[in-house]
Amino acid sequence: MPDTEIRPFTIEVPEAEVDDLRRRLEHARLPSALPDAGWQDGMDPTALQALVDRWLHHYDWRAVERDLNKLPQIVTTIDGQDVHSVVVRSERPDAIPLLLIHGWPSTFAEFVKVIDDLTAPREPDAPAFHVVAPSLPGYGFSGPTRERGWNSTRVAPAFAELMRRLGFTRYVPHGADIGFHVASDMAHADPENVAAIHLNLGGVSQARKHAADPTTTAAEAHAKERSALYATDKSGYAFLQSTRPQTLAYLVTDSPVAQLAWVAEKFHEWTDPDSPVSMDDVLTAVSIYWFTKTAGSAARFYQDGYGARMPPRGYVECPTGVSVWPHDIVPALRHWTELDYNVTYWADMPAGGHFAALEVPDLMVDTLRSFARRQILGA
């Protein structure tokens, strides 16, 4: 019989692991750097040193662990893989089941700042949600994947099964980065139960797909310019993760500074400079990867099928809401999006970037509520 048990989960990093991290940080070997070294070369040396110092002397993993454990968490085994998730049920009888799906280099903790407002809104007429925030297979407390093939088309039915086991029907997947691919594939994998999807839609693949098309608007020119910059200067991480994830795994699993630099660079590059991700939020993401030893399996997601390696997806007929954040890698464009999705809600957001739930959590809550009012509640 398949194991369908849902088990309570508590984060409990052994003290020996915390002590080991401290020792490694105390004895870290940092490379030399040119006098003018900066973000144009990769992880800025001054910024890295500040993060290392904070991780070692001021960041309190045990306090973070206690805060995360205030959220109800479960783990269950689906398709041979453990799946960890936060599950917070609203007290409102009209609450909408909402599946929040993170991407790389993020974790489920990206959504901690929005959960309270989503599940228990202060305004009585605001939509309320039951929130499910899983860790992608191969990420964080879902643990390393045990076999190849965990791409978005495989995660989608696994997350549909997660929602079924939790008793949720007619639910809304929301996703960013990898998460928007999983949410899109869930519209195909579970059409009977996916009421609508909401995406923080990035336009990297869009701009690449339409690169040879005649450019007719300033928005198209801007998207293509941003896409070209990404391809030539900012996508090396994706090429390495999709071709040699095991080599990378040796580096970031053995050196916390390597893990920190690999992740923190992206939290800097892909965010709104007016609403940067805090140092402690970066360190929480890095700590989760470090303690769970999942950096390698997270990278392998790119090898298994992501970005240019993704299997083709048909038109998404499910009602689709899109929120576009101006400082994402490449902002999506509506007329390109409508070629692939049944777009019923579109919001060009005034601020924020790739990690909107961390950068501008109030705006993230607002757009999810607006989408729910229009698409689910018909208001």
Folded structure, characterized:
This protein is of the alpha/beta class and 379 residues long. The chain has a single domain (6-26, 37-376), classed as Rossmann fold. Helices cover 45% and strands 15% of the residues. The protein has a nine-stranded mixed β-sheet, sandwiched between helices. The relative contact order is 0.14.
Category by helix and strand content? alpha/beta
Major sheet attributes? 9 strands, mixed
CATH superfamily: Alpha/Beta hydrolase fold, catalytic domain
Radius of gyration: 20 Å
Class in CATH? Alpha Beta
Count the E strands.
9
Spell out the key features of this protein.
single chain; 379 residues; Rossmann fold; 45% helix
Concise description?
By secondary structure, the protein is of the alpha/beta class.
How does the SSE layout of this entry go?
Blueprint: E1 6-8, H1 15-26, H2 45-57, H3 61-68, E2 73-78, E3 81-88, E4 96-101, H4 112-119, E5 129-134, H5 152-165, E6 172-176, H6 178-189, E7 197-200, H7 204-209, H8 218-234, H9 236-243, H10 245-254, H11 256-269, H12 279-292, H13 295-305, E8 316-324, H14 334-337, E9 341-348, H15 356-359, H16 361-376
Parallel strand pairs: 4-5, 4-6, 6-7, 7-8, 8-9
Antiparallel strand pairs: 1-2, 2-3, 3-5
Helix pairs in contact: 4-16, 5-6, 9-13, 10-11, 10-13, 11-12
